[in-house]
Amino acid sequence: MRSSAxxxxxxxxxxxxxxxxxxxxxxxxxKFLGRIVSRAEETVQNxxxxxxxxxxxxxxxxxxxxxxxxxxxxxxxxxxHQADVCHAYxxxxxxxxxxxxxxxxxxxxxxxSTENPTKGIIINAPNGExxxxxxxxxxxxxxxxxxxxxxxxxGDVRGLKGVGTGxxxxxxxxxxxxxxxVDHGAPGLLAFPSSExxxxxxxxxxxxxxxxxxxxxxxxxxxxxxSGSMFxxxxxxxxxxxxxxxxxxxxxxxxxxxxxxxxxxxxxxxxVMWMEDSEKEDLTKETLFRQFSIVRKETNTSHVQEYGDLxxxxxxxxxxxxxxxxxxxxxxxxxxxxxxxxxxxxxxPLEILRHKLRKMNxxxxxxxxxxxxxxxxxxxxxxxxxxxxxxxxxTEDETKTEFIITGRLKLTNFSCYEExxxxxxxxxxxxxxxxxxxxxxxVLVNMCQSSIPKEVVIRAMDEVCxxxxxxxxx
Length: 474
Fold this sequence. Notes:
Helices cover 42% and strands 12% of the residues. By secondary structure, the chain is α/β, with parallel strands linked by helices.
């Protein structure tokens, strides 16, 4: 307002001076003088209008579809996780989600691994197409962390300045979001390459996104062991969020499609099921609930779950995975059921070695593989023995110890559990470097739920453990 008034004043001064000059030159020419005054007033009005005119309001933007895809593991034996996410990327692109609306987090150490016989190529099914080609990777390597993921989905541009591509969700209240996470899990947490994302932290972020109106509807597909524990009795049904998980709160998810050329598993049952369904169905007609029902029925290795606002299940899959009608070409490939060789996710490292052993002809090579198998089994037993010692020292009771290391109590005391998980990872076995440990974190749940003081448990850890002496317990 001040600048407008100032410019207007200058205009008046300028015009007044001009008029006086003209009047002095020709006092008798009133008509000419009248035209000058009229033109001056018009000029002033035009100048004022430049400052007082309201900017035209933009038309309401059309709703957009956004996606965040996360593979939270590394290591060639975890090949399937990045294969799942790359495949998901292709499914979304084929159905019309623009690449600028897809944000991908993956360690990216598989495609060009020395163990990969087809460099630069990743497949997600036997004789499958290359799903790695064309994938735009936003965050790789050490940038694949819980913190990065949370900043991406919460739209924290400043927090990711200088990290990866820096891209985050830029969604608004009319937009839909699809999130697909694939990795290892444990009670109340999802694993990342070097740390963990706890359930309450994720819930807080989702609530904050809802309150800041970052989406109309949000759908999450989670592939991880015990993934139901991330949402069971935690996720409200009034946040416009719908979740399906590969497993309930207490069981494994399952790997599938062992490839004898690549010596690894190519996919995970739940992930393969939903993507194969998306590739053959008309997503403008199929509802989320129908896809969930199909995947739940066909995934008989674990109990696929749903959480949150179940009314969203009436919406079409295309509202989240893209509305384009572009089914994936089979290239003559005959479909193989992922259930034929499915194994619990936690058994994958040993199963890979057993597959290798069965095709070995050389005695020295067989002996080396058998040595590796015994080494893994020995390390696993050491971890279990350590946990038993911790429990026994904390309880001083054999009967209670036996229950705690075998029972399965429901996790509700998250505060205690989160502190014990962090303490166990710091004092005993770094979780991300000893993935087998995730399979036994239920012991920490049981101690918290049995009202054993966390201070007593941590003191027992200090007395029993040798910090980070062991790595590679897989």
